[in-house]
Amino acid sequence: MTFDTVTELWRQSEHMFEDNTVLEIDLAQVTRTDSAGLSLLVEWMRGASRQSGRVEFLNLPDQMLALARVSNVEHLLAGKRSEQLS
């Protein structure tokens, strides 16, 4: 989830938000991320909120959590890191 990939990810996900939907997005397969990836997560949360839904992120990568801490948005990412699920 980097500057190179988030535009396409956004296009593919634009219509996944339906009324009152709770989406669980598992990020276990994410191997690289940057601030664009973090922005995409925040935008997904906004999209769900506009439709009275919500997004829950599972298996947040350490790199994503570090970016969220530095950006002071860690509290927004309600999810679990992979080692917490073991």
What does this structure look like?
The protein has 86 residues and is of the alpha/beta class. It has a single domain (6-13, 23-85), classed as STAS domain (Transcription Regulator spoIIAA, 2-Layer Sandwich), CATH 3.30.750.24. It is 43% helix and 14% strand. It is built from 4 helices and 3 strands. The protein has a 3-stranded parallel beta sheet. The longest helix has 16 residues, at 35-50. It is globular and about 30 Å long.
Percent in strands:
5-15%
What's the helix count?
A: 4
Rg is 12 Å
For the record, the CATH class is: Alpha Beta
Q: Give the fraction of residues assigned to helices.
A: 40-55%
What average pLDDT do the residues reach? 86
Number of strands: 3
Biggest sheet strand line-up:
1-2-3
**Number of discrete domains:** 1
Q: What class would the helix/strand composition place it in? A: alpha/beta
CATH H-tier superfamily: STAS domain
Distance N to C terminus: 24 Å
CATH topology (fold) name = Transcription Regulator spoIIAA
Order of SSEs, N→C?
HEHEHEH
Low-confidence stretches: 82-86
The biggest sheet, with number of strands, parallel, antiparallel or mixed sense and barrel status, is: 3 strands, parallel
Q: Would you identify the CATH architecture? A: 2-Layer Sandwich
What's the shape?
globular
What is the element layout, followed by pairings?
Blueprint: H1 6-13, E1 22-26, H2 35-50, E2 54-58, H3 62-70, E3 79-80, H4 82-85
Helix pairs in contact: 1-2
